[in-house]
Design brief:
single chain, about 650 residues, mainly beta, lipopolysaccharide transport protein A fold, 27-stranded mixed barrel, 13-stranded antiparallel sheet, 2 helices, about 0% helix, about 70% strand, cell outer membrane, membrane, Organic solvent tolerance protein, LptD_C, signal
């Protein structure tokens, strides 16, 4: 029979109401429903005034966030607090499980137990999960933290690790807390321990604090700050390490910021290191280790009708030659007129005044005005023509080879003709696109080189190109050929011939080559092929050749999703002269609540550093902070490797 009190409904085989104690006693298939919760048990007592409930026998409690299975529960239906005995608790958001004998539900998301296990693996009370933490004085706040004493980390119920105390972040959303540390070893840097702390300042700002301890090198400290708003966004990072072995102090600073003030938009992108070899010593990514220049820039733009003003600053750090080798653009003021139609003509203009500074070689100021008028006609064979005038004037310093007030007046004429032939057959479409172009710039006198503006000089080149493609239903074949004639090259007018070919479909094929007809040899040859050998397993091969040093580079890659749980990938680069280069291989095993990534890497050395080998075992316990890098080992070959 059912009974209702406020927003609570009780249904049971037998229901009694005791007025003196103002309580309901229900037995047999008891079901107590609140506004957003339900309690099921063999027997239950509900006190009307306090909303306290005692449930015994096959107790199940469920609300929007939680599912609880317990032998006995003492709960307040309204506050959702109380005590649970021999309980299995499941949190729907984050897939968290708690199993404990005597659990106190302090708040809706806060639990305390004298002894309990904690995991994110799906399991019932009678089986052992794939992994769990078991400890005493267990305190869990969902979305924030897990703390316990005398903790054992267990795999299928077998203890494998012990800690007298444990703290771990339990994240359902971004929250302040420690991230799992990186632990590793290197023959050059020694033992590594790298903890990190994440600070969720508010909903649109956060920061991460980094610490890197290297037993052979010293301690590195870093801070990263991120923010996002309606009109601005950015991230800033600073890092410092005093290397006791190299006797160097390293600084790294980088950051980006974007800002909008009405129609005015601006950005800043800063990258700085005080030592040119910082990334070679501490850069984990290949693109950081091999980069030649670090660029920093900032720009403010004011849009106008069909035009814009801008203020630009740029500087580069040459990681090979030093900080002062490349001129800094500090600042440049520019005015740009976007393409606008004037009768049958189209007009555009770029103009700027820039200050170039460097500690050695030429520096000074430059004014550049470059208006362009273009005209196009034709339908079957469209022809595009443009005429650009260019006035460039300088105020030079530190330039004994040039006049201090050097200037240049010149022009550029360009013409381009392109047509397309298309023929559709029953099974494929054939496209041919021939084109021809011509560029002319008269000869001018020599100028100091600041950027590509100074390369605007003596040119008379005609280029002939043809593109050919066959498009089938599941296959596309394409090829192109391009040849230029340089009329200023004397008796050797033929420039490099460029050939490209590609195929896409069941497998991919790419090929490109530059050929020098004057010397009768290939200057560069690049090719790659990729295909799927079985379902979800792909292989790629590549070859690069350059005639400058007569060197071949060979690449090999494989990526395989073996099953829902297993995947693997490998990448190898081989240099015909230097041997094995950047190479890596990894195997990943994924379960519902955890994953393991085993990786091996090789980083090439140079004349100062030996090749580096590394091994990493990364275990991710899903739902508990960041992946745990339990062990990482790195060693180095001899300098001759």
């Amino acid at each position: 029979m059912p009974a209702s009190i406020w927003a609570t409904t009780i249904t049971a085989d037998h229901l009694e109401h005791f007025k003196d104690e103002d309580k309901y006693v229900a037995t047999g298939n008891v079901r107590i429903e609140g506004e957003d919760s339900v309690l099921i048990a063999d027997r239950a007592v509900l006190y009307q005034k306090t909303s306290d409930a005692e449930a015994i026998g096959n107790v199940i409690y469920e609300d929007n966030e939680t599912f609880i299975n317990t032998e006995k529960a003492e709960l307040n239906i309204k506050t959702k607090t109380g005590k649970l005995y021999n309980a299995l608790i499941f949190f729907k958001k984050g897939n968290y499980w708690i199993n404990g004998n005597n659990v106190s539900k302090i708040k809706e998301d806060h639990y305390y137990a004298d002894s309990a296990t904690f995991t994110t693996c799906d399991a019932d009370a009678s089986s052992n999960p794939d992994w769990c933490f078991k400890g005493s004085n267990v305190d869990i706040v969902i979305g924030k933290k897990f703390t316990a004493q005398n903790v054992t980390y267990r795999v299928k119920g077998v203890p494998v690790l012990y800690s007298p105390y444990m703290w771990a972040p339990v994240k359902t959303e971004r929250e302040t807390g420690f991230l799992f540390p990186v632990i590793g070893s290197s023959s050059r840097k020694g033992f590594q321990f790298s903890p990190a702390f994440f600070w969720a300042i508010d909903e649109n700002k956060d920061a991460t604090f980094y610490l890197d301890y290297y037993s052979n090198r010293g301690i590195g400290k870093g801070v990263e700050y991120r923010y996002l708003d309606f009109y601005d966004r950015g991230r800033w990072y600073i890092y410092h390490l005093k290397d006791s072995e190299l006797k160097k102090t390293f600084y790294e600073f980088k950051g980006t910021h974007e800002q909008e003030l009405g129609d005015i938009k601006g950005y800043v992108d800063i990258n700085y290191v005080n030592q040119e070899d910082f990334y070679k010593e501490y850069g984990y990514k290949k693109n950081l280790r091999i980069q030649r220049f670090l660029q920093s820039s900032g720009e403010v733009t004011l849009p106008l009708q069909n035009a814009r003003f801008y203020l630009l600053g740029q500087q580069w750090i040459d990681l090979k030659e030093g900080h002062s080798a490349v001129p800094k653009r500090l600042p440049e003021i520019g005015y740009v007129i976007n393409p606008v139609n004037i009768g049958p003509l189209m007009f555009t203009m770029n103009s700027s005044i820039a200050n170039f500074y460097r500690q050695r070689d030429e520096k000074g100021q430059r004014m550049d005005i470059n208006p362009t008028v273009s005209y196009s006609f034709g339908e079957t064979v469209p022809i595009f023509q443009s005429l650009s005038l260019r006035e460039t004037a300088y105020n030079l310093e530190n330039a004994p080879s040039y006049k201090s007030s050097a200037h240049r007046e010149t022009f550029q004429y360009k013409a381009n003709a392109l047509t397309r032939f298309i023929k559709r057959y029953e099974s494929f479409t054939h496209v041919i696109e021939p084109s021809v172009s011509y560029t002319f710039i008269p000869e001018t006198h020599s100028l100091p080189l600041f950027d590509s503006t100074e390369l605007f000089d003596k040119t008379s080149i005609a280029t002939f190109s043809i593109y050919n493609s066959l498009a089938f239903r599941h296959l596309t074949l394409s090829a192109s050929l391009s040849q230029s004639l340089n009329f200023n090259a004397g008796d050797r007018p033929l420039s490099l011939t460029t050939i490209n070919a590609a195929m896409s479909g069941p497998f991919s094929l790419n090929f490109d080559m530059t050929y020098d007809p004057n010397k009768g040899r290939a200057e560069t040859v690049n090719s790659s092929v990729g295909f799927t050998i079985i379902d979800k397993t792909s292989i790629s091969f590549g070859e690069r050749y350059t005639n400058v040093d007569e060197r071949y580079y060979y690449t090999f890659g494989v990526n395989s999703v073996i099953s829902k749980k297993w995947s693997a990938n490998a990448n190898i680069v081989y240099d015909s002269q230097a041997g094995l280069r950047d190479s890596s291989a990894s195997v990943i095993y994924t379960e519902q609540c955890w994953a393991v990534n085993i990786s091996a890497i090789r980083r090439p050395g140079d004349n100062k550093r030996p090749a580096e080998y590394g091994f990493m075992l990364l275990i991710e316990l899903k739902g508990v902070g960041q992946p745990i890098r339990l062990y990482q080992y790195q060693t180095h070959s001899t300098p001759s490797s």
